[in-house]
Amino acid sequence: MLPSEKLAIAAHLHVLLRRKTGRVTDTEWMASNADYAAEIVRFAKASAQKDGHADLAEWAARLEGAMTATPPTAPLAKRLFSAAEPAQTGAPAAPGEAALAQGNAPSRYIRGIR
Amino acid sequence: MHKKFLRWFLISLALLGASAWAQAPTQPAWVAQDTINAADTAWMMTSTALVLLMTLPGIALFYGGMVRRKSVINTMASIVAITALVSLLWFAVGYSIAFTPGNQWLGGDDRLWFTGLNYLKESGRVAVSHVAPNIPESVYAMFQLTFAIITAALVVGALVERMLFSAMLWFIGMWSIVVYAPIAHWVWEPGGWLAQMGALDFAGGSVVHINAGVTGLVCAYVLGPRKGYGKEAFEPFNLGLTMAGAGLLWVGWFGFNAGSAVASDGRAGLAMAVTHMAASAGAMTWMISEWILRGKPSLLGLCSGLVAGLVAITPAAGYVTPQSALLIGAVAGVACYWGATGLKRWLNADDSLDVFGVHGIGGIVGSLMTGLLASHTISGVDGHVGLQLIGVVAVVGYSAVMTAALLWLTKVIVGLRASDAAEVLGLDISQHREKMGT
Q1: Is A58 helix (H, G, I), strand (E, B) or coil?
Q2: Which of chain B's residues have a Cβ under 8 Å away from the Cβ of A110?
Q3: ipTM of this complex > 0.90?
């Protein structure tokens, strides 16, 4: 599933949660972090069961499916390898540069910000 | 004839000594308002504002830009709360135990609750500190307060995104009294044991930066890493904010270092010049190091490098020539780059925003190089690397042990870490019920 599709589901769930439970969520983080998404899904399902919001349960299930779906991108090791390859200009590429350019979570920020 | 001359000599010596004592009090005292130097006072009030500006909004922006979006508000709120909390504690206890004569380990209780920091209009008298006899003591106490604030605020960089807000307040409050104030007394009050030994620290290389760096490292070890550390990418919220914060730090540091001359004189002017040169050299050498080793120079690297240079020149600012400052800044840029990358991996602690890598390492480099490069012609004193090393070891040891003890105490009182769910959700919502805008 594309990141934009995940984001659309997360945005829909964000609005439903706000309206029906008053809970404020981080849409972008929900679409990118599996742990956070799982917690929101758990909360949404619990609220749906407690208060009888069928649509909330439906969108929670959609998000759950989207977050567990296999991403179409190449394996992490391959992405890391390609990111470390030298750029066309001849200058050595920084680790995670390709990921940065694609707007994905860059590997350069793993284990340290500098 | 010989005896007569000897008697005259001894009387003259005694009078000279008494006169010198009258001019340079050894404890806080009342003086006539017209003995206060207006230029010095104006510069110190300006410096006080500059140093506060380094924290609010300097550090808040610098750190706030580097954490993840879900913890920006918590980071900024921590800085604001620390400013208020440390101010009240400094007023109540900190200033007195740091800057009044007591014994060589701790100051006295004369100035608890700022008692005696008065200005009496009718009799034309004002209180002055023996450390800064040309300016009102109220100004000196406020100037030193801004140092206490920024030192505590620096520690936040090591504990972001996982520490309970309440725990942070308990810890920093106790730390400000139990760790910061005594070390300030050792180094800056003339009766302090490191001051008497001759260890040099012009504006806080050990008191502020080594102290904050070591505290940050111990916090990082005791708290443990953030969830996902080493596996997930922790993308910074907005490096533009970090750059704005770094700019404010650079400008504010003129008050920090040149203000530490406690006068608007030639030494303050030189301190300002060396501060700027060291910052520039630090930015350049960090940038070059990163360019060579990583292939690209980053904005965060430039900002970190300038801070590294500023940190390292801090203990040396009133003692070294501009040429020496260039060397200190250049060495610090490389050393701190290593501190925030290679050393960080080796230490294996989630010192999240590299408080030890930049402030700890920069402070150690600056303190030792002060011993090596201090110029007698500028300050009238000579540096000694051995004495500087003793100062470094003392501050590292005391800061580390007491920080660990205070974290243990904080854990007993309120706990230390946010729950896993609160951490995943983000501290902005879980601790403050607020969220950063888009």
Answers
A1: helix
A2: 230-234
A3: no
